[in-house]
Each structure stands twice: as structure tokens, then as C-alpha cells.
Design a protein that fits this description.
The chain has about 325 residues and is mainly α. Helix content is about 35%, strand content about 5%. The protein has 2 domains: about 120 residues, Orthogonal Bundle (Cytochrome Bc1 Complex, Chain D, domain 2), CATH 1.10.760.10; about 140 residues, Cytochrome Bc1 Complex, Chain D, domain 2 (Orthogonal Bundle). It contains 11 helices and 6 strands. β2 and β3 form a beta hairpin. α2 crosses α6, α7 crosses α9 and α8 packs across α9.
Length: about 325
């Protein structure tokens, strides 16, 4: 359960992993299809020390605002800044394929992240979510909450080999329309498909009088901030296309690629919390995703095009700039 966070150890582990990956033939990498994988049941977890941490991690994951958000009894444990719950993005408590599932995530770290231009631990990744997607602040690395998150992710990864190729991890890409997003169509799709759950203003529906939401806010002060991954139109569109409306699965999408693209752009045009110092993200600007909605950029395309597309001209320019630096 104990994980090293010392920089030298991180680099050593990562270097070893890269070396092993280069030495091993591709056939040796086990593939796991998460759509065919049966996750463990939380009801099977015991009351030993590890089991208690797993159950606490599950509670944090599924009831985040009440456990470690605005409603937390201990003010020192109010790490979440708004009303979102971890499973608002990692659906079904982190088990739904192509909704950034956490099954197998334990064995995928440490890994290089372009946003920080460094090798991140799983702890780093969790805290990145808290600072951005949850619009909060970091959890202490040696605290019970971090240990609980790690225990839950490790338990959820039971039986999946470290370093396995995970089919269904992350999100499933959409087919881009090859044009700028149509915010008017996005607003219509939102009104027709999304507003009944998320509210006509995108600010969600409360679950009673507490801080939590039955349906999460996609805009406003309780939503993710402008440094979150979901502010990227292609990321949001992929999530919506294969997971929304709620209950949708990747093998039976409801929205078209075009409508998902447009509604993602519309949602991200709405007001949300602002994260400072975003100019420090992606130290290597050539590694910055083309749909990152904030600068600075390596190219000279306007921020509006980075936010709403089309993206192929940006990709071509980045490729040209990268080739010129070799």
C-alpha cells in the first residue's frame, strides 16, 4: 500500500518501466478489455485495515461533497471546492468503460504527463483532479483520504496486470466534423437532451437541501474550473458521445459525433470557476493538445480556434513546428 513519492524513486521506476517496455515484445503485453471485465463488488470487502480504507475510498468517490467537500464536518477536510462527485466523470464508481474508468489504473503509474512535463505518480494525478475537475485543493499525501483513494483504486484493479493494455480506458474519440463548433446547434442539443437533468442554465439539480447534486452542474461556481480536462472540447465531446444522456454506453451512443461536438463547445462557453497560472501548463508548447482553450500556444492560431476548432490546421502547424526543431 505504501507508495514512494520521492523524485529519484519516481524517475528510477519510470526508467525501469520504459526499459522493460522496450525490451519486451509487444506480444508479451497483456490486453484487458474492460467492457468484458467484471469489477469486484464493494459488498465483498472485509473489515480488515485495507478493507476499511477501500470502503472509505468508495465513500469518498461516490459521496465526495459530503465527505470531503463543503459539507464535511471537519473544515480541514473540505478539499472539494464545489458540488461535483468523483463518479460524475468516472461513472459507476469508476467502472464504466470509456468514461475514464479506474480499473487497472493502479498499474499504469508512474507515467509522463505533458501538462506538467514530468513523470507523475498516481497521487499527483489524483491531486490534479482535485485542483481542476473538483475546483478544490490538494489532499495531503500522507493523509487518510489519499490512502483511501489509493486503496480503492488498487482494489478496483484487482486481477489486472501492471502495465496491461486496457481496452476501454480513458475515452473513445469522436469523429470530428472538420469545422468550428456550432454554438447555436450546441445550445439546441443542450435544451433538447441535457437540460432536463442538468438544468436549463447547466447548473445541475440538487439532491435535497445538502451540497450534493442529483445531476451535476456543468457550469457555475460548483462545477469544474477552466483548467480541467473537460474544458477541452474534444475531451468533453468524447465523454458526452459515449456516456450521455445518463445510462448511455459506448456501444449504443445516442448523440451523433456532430451534436456531441457542438454541445461540448456550448457547455464550455458557459461561465465557470477560473484557475490561476494556467500559462504555466504544458512547458513544452508543442505537446499542448490542440483543443486546449487557454494559451500561450506554440502556433499563431487564435484562442477561439483552439477552443472551438477546426483543429486539423492546428495539428498540421504543430507537426511542421516540431519537424523544424529536430
Amino acid at each position: 500500500m505504501k507508495r514512494s513519492i520521492h523524485l529519484i524513486s519516481m524517475l528510477s521506476l519510470a526508467a525501469a518501466a520504459v526499459a522493460m517496455a522496450r525490451e519486451a515484445p509487444a506480444a508479451d503485453v497483456q490486453q484487458i478489455d474492460l467492457a468484458e471485465w467484471t469489477p469486484p463488488s464493494i459488498g465483498s470487502v472485509g473489515d480488515d485495515p485495507f478493507g476499511k480504507l477501500v470502503k472509505y475510498g468508495y465513500a469518498l468517490f461516490t459521496d465526495t461533497p459530503n465527505q470531503i467537500g463543503p459539507a464535511a464536518i471537519d473544515p480541514a477536510k473540505r478539499f472539494v471546492g464545489g458540488g461535483l462527485t468523483c463518479q460524475n466523470c468516472h461513472l459507476k464508481a469508476g467502472t464504466q468503460p470509456y468514461s475514464v474508468p479506474l480499473m487497472g489504473a493502479w498499474g499504469q503509474f508512474p507515467q509522463y504527463r505533458a501538462r506538467e512535463a514530468q513523470i507523475d505518480t498516481l497521487e499527483d494525478r489524483i491531486n490534479g483532479c482535485f485542483e481542476r475537475s473538483m475546483n478544490g485543493h490538494v489532499i495531503p499525501l500522507d493523509g487518510t483520504e489519499m490512502k483511501a483513494y489509493l486503496a480503492y483504486i488498487k482494489w478496483l484493479s484487482t486481477g489486472i496486470p501492471d502495465g496491461a493494455k486496457l481496452i476501454g480506458a480513458g475515452m473513445k474519440s469522436i469523429k470530428e466534423p472538420g469545422r468550428a463548433a456550432d454554438l447555436d446547434n450546441g445550445a439546441k442539443v443542450f435544451a433538447d437532451t441535457c437540460a432536463s437533468c442538468h438544468g436549463k442554465d447547466g447548473r445541475g439539480q440538487r439532491a435535497g437541501k445538502g451540497p450534493g447534486y442529483q445531476f451535476p452542474p456543468l457550469a457555475g461556481p460548483d462545477s469544474y474550473n477552466n483548467g480541467a480536462g473537460m474544458t477541452r472540447v474534444l475531451t468533453f465531446a468524447s465523454f458526452v458521445r459515449y456516456n450521455m444522456p445518463f445510462g448511455t454506453t459506448f456501444d449504443a451512443p445516442v448523440l451523433s459525433d456532430t451534436d456531441a461536438y457542438d454541445v461540448a463547445a456550448y457547455v464550455n462557453s458557459l461561465e465557470r470557476p477560473v484557475r490561476p497560472n494556467l500559462d504555466k501548463d504544458f512547458p513544452n508548447k508543442l505537446q499542448k493538445p490542440v483543443d486546449t482553450p487557454y494559451g500561450p500556444y506554440a502556433d499563431d492560431f487564435p484562442p477561439e480556434q483552439h477552443k472551438y476548432g477546426p483543429f486539423d490546421p492546428i495539428r498540421a502547424k504543430i507537426k511542421e513546428l516540431a519537424a523544424a526543431r529536430r
